[in-house]
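Re-run requested by the PI after the first attempt was lost when the workstation crashed. Everything re-entered from the original request form. Ligand of interest: zinc ion.
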Amino acid sequence: MPFSFANVDGRACLVENDAYFDLERISEGSISADPMEALGRNDEFHAIAASLESHESDGVISEATVDAPAPRPRNSFGVGLNYKDHAEESKMDLPSVPVVFTKYPSCISGPFDDVLLRGDSNDYEAELVVVIGRTTRDITADQAWSYVAGLTVGQDISDRALQLAARPAHFGLGKSRDSYGPTGPMLLSPDSFADPNDLHITCDINGDRRQDAQTSSLIFDVPFLVSYLSEIMTLEPGDTIFTGTPAGVGMPDKRFLKPGDVIRTTVEGIGVMENTCR
Ligand code: ZN
C-alpha cells in the first residue's frame, strides 16, 4: 500500500486524505517522532498506511504546520542542466554525465516558508526531489526505486550572481543561502504513482505560469541518478536529491525574484508548495 509522509510541527506523520496520524503515537513508541529517524523505517510505513482506519487521527493536515519532510539530510545533492530545454535556455551543452553539486543541507526549508532573498539576481527552479529510504551502495538503475523512500516537491532557489561569481562557477554556494531549499509538503512513496518517471511539474510566479514540464523529459532520470551516486558514495535514509529544473527559469530574460513574489510549485500527485519572497 502506498504511503504519504509529512513532517507536522517537527513530528513524523502519515497522511490519509486530509487527516494526519502521528507515527510515534500509532506505533506505540516503536517509530521515532523525529522525521529523519522515522524515514529510515519507511519500509514499515506501507503496512501502517493500510491500518490507518483503525486509528484516531491527530488533526487536519490543511490546518497544521507542515515542515520539510526530510528537514536535515546528511547529504543533499542538486543536478544541473538535467532537462534539454533548460540546458538550451542556459546556452550550455547537454551534459554527458550528471552535473552534480551540493545543496548544503542548511538551506532546506519548509513548503510554506518564506524565501529570504539576498541580492537582486535570485531565480526559481521547480524540481522533483528524491528522498533516499535505505542504505544504498553500488546499486543498478533497475534496483533504484526500491531504495527511494519517496518523492516530494522542491525549489532550487539560486542566487545567479553568487553562483557565477567564481570560475569555475560555484553552484553549491549560489544555491545554498539560508531558506533557498523549500521542500514538501508531502513525501509520497514511489508506488503511489502510475509511473513515477513521468510526473507533471509546474511553477507559477504571482499566478503567471513559468515552468510546465513532464519529469519524463529528464536527461538523467531518477533511477540513473540514484545508481550513479551510489557508485560514488553510500547514500543513507533521508539523503535528498534535487533532480534538476525544466525550462522557464528567470535568468534568460532577467526576470528575477522580488520581495513579495509568491512562488507556487507543484508536482502531480504530491501537492503544492507556496513560498513568499521577503
Ligand atoms: Zn536546480
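Saved to the shared folder this time. DSSP finds seven helices and 18 strands in the chain.
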